[in-house]
């Protein structure tokens, strides 16, 4: 086995670096191509690594913060509201007039939670301040969907976006929590 | 082997780099769950390796390879993985090393084989945290420095470069739709993801610390280039078609399979694993 000469190592490394840099630049335009109806995040707001900070717990009366501990690509935190993402699309069927105690508009709201390993989109239906239905409308994590298949039921049971962490499926669980928190933040009556 | 000599050996080098990665990643993320997993994985791997060596009546029982396998498994599995998943993955890796062997050499990279099976069997989630997949992008040079050090020591640059070029170009070609493959995963963000943390960290760690495993990769320059190219192309195609996180392992196993076929159809006579006299003396004893 002949040892590779240093000049060849440097040359090959540089060539691979150039290929990588070109593809990196070219791929910027392709970050999470928006699909009709799904509304994904724009480039530059790719990651939200943290757990959903807004404990969107309906019965306990905790107010929704609406901030889903978004982080940028380098893992640094930012205070952007999840609901501020262009992804957020709400389809409120018939927003009922807000009364003094009512905190959420009725309707079906779509929220997205994402991190470096993909994103999850959920459709959350709220009726009379109660979460009546949660559906995973788009699962684009690099993990198996079966990891989080039981989480919608857990949200209905707990009436909260905060679910128990699925052992070994932390990234999917966090993305799901963020997605539900995002949807509920849109339902909130300001 | 004297400790000084062993430390300069390829295994010794890898065994210096991997704990360093573990320490840096744990300290930077302020999460020592990964270190606990490393203890579990190494313990399980060493126990199974020693057990298998005893059953095989091997003369030399020095589980340094099991140490490496255990460390790699723990650096890739998510830090929140249950302890039994970590232990079982390490055990499967070591068992594959002993059960799937040809001329006493493992057919497949043990860690890659165990990690691949851990997904369908144990539903393991892999984060590549030990390749700094959860940390900011400026940790990437640390992977490169450690990887280059090991690659240089074991003289596997042709293989690593061949993998990197083919992998990157194949991703581009698939994304551009030049080949008639329905690479949907790439068009829905997969191409973007593949070039950024944690996927690029995973690819670098994999190329320089797993693909280069001496017992399961070729030594000759030409073979190294073919091996790297097969692993890169297979990995990119699997990623393009299915996404997920197991594409690199499948690429490596494809390369290993090429290596097996090369052995099988090589014209050189099969070298006995042990001298005949040694085998005869064993038979007499038993």
| Strand segment count of chain A | 4
- Structural class category of chain B: mainly alpha
Most extensive chain-chain interface:
A-B, 46 and 45 residues
**Overall spatial form of chain B:** globular
Show unreliable segments of chain B: none
**Structural class by secondary-structure content of chain A:** alpha+beta
Rg calculated over all Cα atoms of chain A = 20 Å
Strand coverage percent of chain B: under 5%
N-to-C SSE string of chain B, H for helix and E for strand: HHHHHEEHHHHHHHH
Oligomer: heterodimer
Q: How much strand of chain A?
A: 15-25%
Q: Largest sheet of chain B, if any?
A: 2 strands, antiparallel
Biggest sheet statistics of chain A: 4 strands, antiparallel
Tags for this model:
heterodimer; A: 190 residues; alpha+beta; 2 domains; four-stranded antiparallel sheet; 3 helices; 25% helix; 18% strand; B: 286 residues; mainly alpha; Ammonium transporter fold; 13 helices
Task: Give a verbal description of the structure.
The complex is a heterodimer of chains A (190) and B (286). Chain A is an alpha+beta fold. Chain A has two domains: 1-30; 33-190, no CATH class. Chain A has three helices and four strands. Chain A has helices at residues 6-27, 151-158, 170-187, and strands at 89-91, 107-115, 118-127, 130-141. In chain A, a hairpin with a 2-residue loop joins strand 2 and strand 3. The model of chain A is unreliable at 33-88 and 94-98 (pLDDT under 50). Chain B has 286 residues and is mainly alpha-helical. Chain B has one domain (3-265): Ammonium transporter fold (Orthogonal Bundle), CATH 1.10.3430. In chain B, a hairpin with a 2-residue loop joins strand 1 (101-102) and strand 2 (105-106). In chain B, helix 3 (33-55) runs antiparallel to helix 4. The longest helix of chain B is centred in the N-terminal third of the chain and has 23 residues, at 33-55. At the A-B interface, helix 1 and helix 3 of A face helix 8 and helix 9 of B.
Write the layout of secondary structure elements.
The complex is a heterodimer of chains A (190) and B (286).
Chain A: H1 6-27, E1 89-91, E2 107-115, E3 118-127, E4 130-141, H2 151-158, H3 170-187
Antiparallel strand pairs in A: 1-2, 2-3, 3-4
Chain B: H1 3-8, H2 10-29, H3 33-55, H4 64-76, H5 83-99, E1 101-102, E2 105-106, H6 110-122, H7 140-154, H8 157-176, H9 184-194, H10 199-210, H11 221-242, H12 247-265, H13 276-285
Antiparallel strand pairs in B: 1-2
